[in-house]
Amino acid sequence: MEKTFLMLKPDAVQRKMIGRLVQRFEDKGFELLGAKLTRMTMKQAEIHYAEHAGKPFYGELIDFITSGPVFAMVWQGEQAIAMSRTMMGKTNPLEAAPGTIRGDYATDKGLNVIHGSDSPESAEREIANMFEPGELLPSGPPI
Ligand code: CMP
């Protein structure tokens, strides 16, 4: 079982897409361990996007991700990292296949609806950046 950090970006929250995007991952059989609507601080944004520091679009990326609320989530499942990235589609909306989240909803490289971890190491760092350990709860048996 693998954990991944998925984040619905400010464009997705503003477009009222939280429900339908969460639904896709529930339908896929992933388990939701934690979720919150929050606004990334500048520090959290810099930690989250540390690998992009210095790139031409970095300033734009930080401005956008801190511009409004995001919906941060931790999901668990078999190969959750690779599987969720397949479900998200490519970063460039021109290359994102129809049926993927970005293929269906994104029109811009920056305003591209969702972020997903690209490795177990990134997932661990990104989760720790946005959640306290006590905020992650495995779902119990059905009531
Ligand atoms: P994300 O998965 O959040 O990780 C890095 C982000 O950088 C990526 O999604 C895009 O939103 C953003 N990004 C990548 N390339 C560009 C670009 N050329 N212009 C603007 N943003 C970009």
From TrEMBL:
InterPro entries: NDK-like_dom (IPR034907), NDK-like_dom_sf (IPR036850), Nucleoside_diP_kinase (IPR001564), Nucleoside_diP_kinase_AS (IPR023005). This is Nucleoside diphosphate kinase. PROSITE patterns: NDPK, NDPK_LIKE. GO terms for biological process: CTP biosynthetic process; GTP biosynthetic process; UTP biosynthetic process. ATP binds at residues 9, 57, 85, 91, 102, 112. Coiled coil: none annotated. It comes from Paenibacillus piri. It is found in: Cytoplasm. Keywords: ATP-binding, Cytoplasm, Kinase, Magnesium, Metal-binding, Nucleotide metabolism, Nucleotide-binding, Phosphoprotein, Transferase. Its cofactor is Mg(2+). The gene is ndk. Homotetramer. It catalyses: a 2'-deoxyribonucleoside 5'-diphosphate + ATP = a 2'-deoxyribonucleoside 5'-triphosphate + ADP; a ribonucleoside 5'-diphosphate + ATP = a ribonucleoside 5'-triphosphate + ADP; dZDP + ATP = dZTP + ADP. GO terms for molecular function: ATP binding; metal ion binding; nucleoside diphosphate kinase activity. One of its GO terms (cellular component) is cytoplasm. Pfam families: NDK. Residues 1-138 form the Nucleoside diphosphate kinase-like domain. Its EC number is 2.7.4.6. It comes from the Bacteria. The active site is at 115 (pros-phosphohistidine intermediate). (Microbial infection) Catalyzes the phosphorylation of dZDP to dZTP, when the bacterium is infected by a phage that produces the substrate for the synthesis of dZTP (2- amino-2'-deoxyadenosine 5'-triphosphate), which is then used by the phage as a DNA polymerase substrate. Major role in the synthesis of nucleoside triphosphates other than ATP. The ATP gamma phosphate is transferred to the NDP beta phosphate via a ping-pong mechanism, using a phosphorylated active-site intermediate.
